[in-house]
Specification:
The complex is a heterodimer of chains A (about 325) and B (about 350). Chain A is globular. Chain A has about 325 residues and is mainly alpha-helical. A two-stranded antiparallel sheet of chain A has the order 1-2. The longest helix of chain A is centred in the first third of the chain and has 39 residues. Chain A contains eleven helices and two strands; from the N terminus they run H-H-E-E-H-H-H-H-H-H-H-H-H. Chain B folds into two domains: about 130 residues, D-Maltodextrin-Binding Protein, domain 2, CATH 3.40.190; about 150 residues, 3-Layer(aba) Sandwich (D-Maltodextrin-Binding Protein, domain 2). Chain B has 14 helices and twelve strands. In chain B, the strands form two sheets. In chain B, strands 1, 2, 3, 4, 6, 7, 8, 9 and 12 form a nine-stranded mixed sheet that branches. In chain B, strands 5-10-11 form a three-stranded mixed sheet. In chain B, strand 1, helix 2 and strand 2 form a beta-alpha-beta unit. The chains are: A mainly alpha (about 325), B alpha/beta (about 350).
Amino acid sequence: MKTDLQISTSSNIRASQLRQSRFGNLGDGLFYWITLLFAASVLAVTALIGFQLIQASLPALTKFGWRFLVTSTWDPVHQVYGAWPYLFGTLASPFLALLMAVPVALGTAIFLVELCPHWLRGFLSFMVELLAAVPSVVYGLWGIFVLIPILQPVQAKIASSALSAIPLFSGTPTGYSMMAGALVLSIMILPIITAVSRDVLSNVPAAQREAAFGLGATHWEAVKGPILRSARSGIMGAVILGLARALGETMAITMVIGNGKDASWSLLAPANSLASILANQFAEASGLQMPSLMYIALVLFGVAILVNAAARLLLWNMTRGTKHA
Amino acid sequence: MNSLHRIIKAVFVLGTIAILASGCTKPQHSLTAAGATFPYPVYAQWFEAYHRETGVKINYQPMGSGAGVEQLRRRTTDFGASDVAVQDDILQSMPRQIIQLPAVAGAVVIAYQLPGLQKPLQLDGPVLADIFLGKVQRWNDTRIAGLNPGVTLPDLAISPVRRSDGSGTTGIFTSYLAAVSPQWKQQVGVGKSVAWPVGIGAKGNSGVAGVIKQSPGALGYIELAYAEHNHLQFAALRNSAGNFVLPSVTATTAAAAGAVDRLQKDIRASIVNASGEQSYPIAAFTYLLVYANLENAQKANELKGFLQWAMSDGQHMAEKLYYAPLPPQVVVLNKKVIQKIQ
């Protein structure tokens, strides 16, 4: 609490000093306006992207309207377009990836901060950060040459077993599937969630940790209670960063997801994504296909904004809870 | 120390200016072009050999057929290249008259992955169309067995592989399917990207080749060169004369020769399912697109020189890269048109 107070007072002083000198000192004034300009340019670029996307997608917007989002035909020959399978894939694959990546990432982060012997910590952290530096096309190639050959027999077994009665595992598997896409995605977002969670956990005040142990808490109890509680907003932020990476991922996904044409509940069936169809068809698009692809980009833009806003809201809700408690 | 920094900075700035300035003065003999990626390996060799022989430099950007037409329309390039012949509606949107010249021919191969099969599988158009319509689903289907007497086919699902990106290869393949299957023509149609009823999508020829290589039971279409380089098995197709023909450079040239009657009427005529005993049925030209009047005598002469060269010396170079040389009748047609360029 004390440190919080100190920080806030000193930042108040800094701000008021700046306000005082804004018109007194030419250098500071200039500095203020230049940084303001930079900050505003970020907003301007975002607004401009939105405007451009709307403008370029106008023919498709007026022709298909909101039905574009719920219809499933993508037929460049007959000039009929609908984005549902792509929208579905863009929502489902990051969700599945988070489902797999978050427990692993969080477990790794807790181990690194709370339990890891000192000599191993540096090495493990380095390995996690190394994963983050691998370009996405490499993950795609790894997916094709390593993951898919492993998945093929596994999926064939699932498809021939009793599990195939469940819609989640129906169909004829080929390896190239929603499952492969989600797995590759989960590995790609693992390092960022791990690294950010680790930083958040190690920033939990030592006093809290010591207090928990002082009260006789076990390692598990200390982590479960005070440590995770005070770190949860930061961990949520880490998950959002991972989700953002998963939503925009293109190359690795398109290489393993099978680029199917249907929205299917089966994990074994080929799927698709908004980013994937954009990357695939942009170069040779003609006629109404181009505005429709721009509409896809607009939807992707909208999904990214909505997901980020929802995550912010969740975060805000959680931190408000913490302060009350 | 400070002065040293200044000197370094000055040298750096001057160097940058020099580089920029040299970029501004264009070399005397150069042409720019953009377009199709499929014939790029041949074009790259042509341009290099032609530069060595004549000193005329040609910069080619393999951006895709659609982009090639678009750049030519905006006149940012001296000539273009496209895997599909430019149709009338687009021709009318061009600022001036366009000449289309077949450059080389290519074949689209039906590649598959069936372990234990000794000799090439035999297929025909209707069966192929039904595989991609999802009507023929297993390798031991009676219709496939009927085309391959004496071959034991595995009880395995066929997994059709197709392009996920827009591509001239897809255009050629779907135009073949439409030519041999009324249902395909009506339900799916012809295009660089279509609404595939079934299958896994992969990006690029290399992507499709990769999926086929890895998945037992897979079947897909790729260009001849990629099938050869990836050592994939490929099928012999029944041509319009009723013979099963394996894809090859000679069988592709034969297909082009088999369509000469049609080509004399319109150079854009399709050469899929062409007549001729030895014609491979899924073949197509790739085209060079040139303005009939370049409004620049020097450029026109350079371009004419290159095109004449491509029709003679260039043709021999194509074969090694698995692209089919044009049949002599088409070369004659081309040469006549090239002379008209001003």
